[in-house]
């Protein structure tokens, strides 16, 4: 698996397996299958309610812990230094591990500065190998970078062929933050899997729309964490390192950018009310 170095030298796989919306009752089996087909990076979160399943799958895989890059995220209701500190310990317990490879602030709301201080503590204590954020748009990311001791190493945001986050990517590059995509297939919205441009590029290379979508992001220096609960598709999503998109392919896909979310806006007060009202 290809990897990318974070600002502290830790190597992060460029492609991993995400478990957002994977039912807690089936998560262990799904992660076990993902590890069996070759994934070595697993992305979960406190808010997914499936950290226990991820932990059991990793523990039972027989793989050395150091061979797996494990990510989880601190939820909004656990924000603030004291609550975040306690939630990190809880995540370690649920994941059955002594350390987390990458810990992210899940949303840019509530006392995320207090959360960040708790994450810096965990990082210095060796409980976390790298720290970062998720869903931080450029204004919030710059604000955080300007006033913390340890800058975020990763920012995980909605990114796909129809919403490429070019301006945000430039800011991440400026501050040495690795760009990671959630929703690399836009969860199938906006007729993603039948998009004629993606389909044509796929036909040219003998690849699926999903594989083209992932390859485009990888060649755009974006880390990807596709999700599937079907083992065959898990394997298919890994087969993206045996071909390359040429300049014509990249330009055609770059032209698909609609510059708007396929889901929601973090600047919409109703969205913020919804997110901040979710308790674990």
TrEMBL record:
<comment type="similarity">
    <text>Belongs to the aldo/keto reductase family.</text>
</comment>
<feature type="binding site">
    <location>
        <position position="106"/>
    </location>
    <ligand>
        <name>substrate</name>
    </ligand>
</feature>
<protein>
    <submittedName>
        <fullName>Aldo/keto reductase</fullName>
    </submittedName>
</protein>
<feature type="active site" description="Proton donor">
    <location>
        <position position="48"/>
    </location>
</feature>
<feature type="domain" description="NADP-dependent oxidoreductase">
    <location>
        <begin position="20"/>
        <end position="257"/>
    </location>
</feature>
<dbReference type="Pfam" id="PF00248">
    <property type="entry name" value="Aldo_ket_red"/>
</dbReference>
<dbReference type="InterPro" id="IPR018170">
    <property type="entry name" value="Aldo/ket_reductase_CS"/>
</dbReference>
<feature type="site" description="Lowers pKa of active site Tyr">
    <location>
        <position position="73"/>
    </location>
</feature>
<dbReference type="InterPro" id="IPR020471">
    <property type="entry name" value="AKR"/>
</dbReference>
<dbReference type="GO" id="GO:0016616">
    <property type="term" value="F:oxidoreductase activity, acting on the CH-OH group of donors, NAD or NADP as acceptor"/>
</dbReference>
<dbReference type="InterPro" id="IPR036812">
    <property type="entry name" value="NAD(P)_OxRdtase_dom_sf"/>
</dbReference>
<keyword id="KW-0521">NADP</keyword>
<dbReference type="InterPro" id="IPR023210">
    <property type="entry name" value="NADP_OxRdtase_dom"/>
</dbReference>
<keyword id="KW-0560">Oxidoreductase</keyword>
């Amino acid at each position: 698996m290809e990897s990318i170095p974070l600002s502290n030298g830790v190597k992060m796989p460029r492609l991993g397996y995400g478990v957002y919306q994977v039912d807690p009752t089936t998560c262990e089996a799904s992660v076990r299958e993902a590890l069996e087909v070759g994934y070595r990076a697993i992305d979960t979160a406190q808010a997914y309610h499936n950290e226990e399943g991820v932990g059991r799958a990793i523990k039972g895989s027989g793989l050395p812990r150091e061979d797996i890059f494990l990510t989880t995220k601190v939820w909004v209701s656990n924000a603030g230094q004291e609550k975040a500190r306690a939630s990190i310990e809880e995540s370690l317990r649920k994941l059955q591990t002594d350390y987390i490879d990458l810990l992210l602030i899940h949303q840019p709301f509530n006392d995320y500065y207090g959360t960040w201080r708790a994450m810096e503590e965990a990082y210095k204590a060796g409980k976390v190998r790298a720290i970062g954020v998720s869903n931080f748009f450029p204004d919030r990311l710059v604000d955080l970078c300007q006033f913390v001791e340890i800058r975020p190493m990763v920012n995980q945001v909605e990114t796909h062929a129809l919403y490429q986050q070019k301006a945000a990517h430039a800011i991440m590059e400026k501050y040495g933050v690795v760009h990671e995509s959630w929703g690399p297939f836009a969860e199938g919205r906006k007729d993603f899997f039948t998009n004629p441009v993606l389909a044509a590029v796929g036909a040219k290379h003998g690849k699926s729309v999903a594989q083209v979508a992932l390859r485009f992001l990888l060649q755009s220096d974006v880390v990807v964490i596709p999700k599937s609960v079907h083992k065959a598709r898990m394997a298919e999503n890994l087969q993206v390192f045996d071909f390359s998109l040429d300049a014509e392919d990249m330009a055609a896909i770059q032209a698909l950018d609609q510059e708007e979310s396929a889901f929601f806006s973090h600047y919409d007060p109703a969205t913020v009310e919804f997110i901040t009202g979710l308790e674990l």
